[in-house]
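for the writeup, i need someone to sanity check this before i put it in the appendix. the sequnce is what the collaborator sent (i think, or maybe the updated version? ugh). structure was predicted straight from it, no edits. if anything looks off just tell me and ill rerun, i have time this weekend
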Amino acid sequence: PEYVPAQVASIPDLLAAPAADHMERLIQGMAPGAGISEMSPRAIETYGLDDAGYHFAHGTEDECIGRFVDAVAQRRWVVIPFWHPQALHKRFRIRRLQDPRLVLGATDNATLLVRKDSESLIGAAALADLARLHLGNTMLDELDEAVRKRSTTP
């Protein structure tokens, strides 16, 4: 969260003060199969965070998000393996930790997909418009927030 000092800027910083003194050791993830849930345990091992007591737990998306929201309300120091786009980026300032060894991979980009059997239902002109459409992660954060919190349809 943004209230954690800016000197905690990278994954290796979790091993040094002030993070070593204040950061909770549970890294709450989501279900197995989610990309970030597959990469996070590798990052813990690669950076030696496990030797400092950090551990990853699979859970539901609600558990992962709930842990972050609760931690922010109580100003606890936590690491959560979030992704982008994600609705919480609209509600909170979330700092991405630098990954100098690139264990977590590159930043994701949202891409529109259409099933082949649906192309004829959409039409060529609309498909051409969709092919030129680039929403970006910030706009998708807003759409995700609208759908999740305000029950708005995209």
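Residues 87 and 141 are 5 Å apart (CA to CA). The chain is about 40% helix and 5% strand.
thx in advance!!
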